[in-house]
Design a protein that fits this description.
The chain is an alpha+beta fold. It has a single domain, classed as Alpha-Beta Plaits (2-Layer Sandwich), CATH 3.30.70. Helix content is about 20%, strand content about 20%. The chain is built from two helices and four strands, in the order E-H-E-E-H-E. The chain has a two-stranded antiparallel sheet. Strand 2 and strand 3 form a beta hairpin. The radius of gyration is 10 Å and the shape is globular.
């Protein structure tokens, strides 16, 4: 499972744009993106993130 580190996320949206199943969004009131349970662990978000904010659990 992939997770976004809120301390490293720069809110650029590159991960959300790369996600083929639209499992990444910015929740209301947050300043970072989160990955939902719909994540298929393809790794596209991790490859696209230039800030190393995507963690693999």
């Amino acid at each position: 499972m992939h997770k976004i580190d809120p301390d490293e996320c720069q809110s650029c949206g590159a991960c959300a744009s790369a996600c083929p199943v639209e499992a990444i969004s910015m929740p209301p009131g947050k300043n970072y993106f989160e990955i939902s349970d719909e994540c298929i662990d393809c790794g596209e978000c991790e490859a696209e993130c230039g800030f190393n904010a995507i963690l693999t659990e």
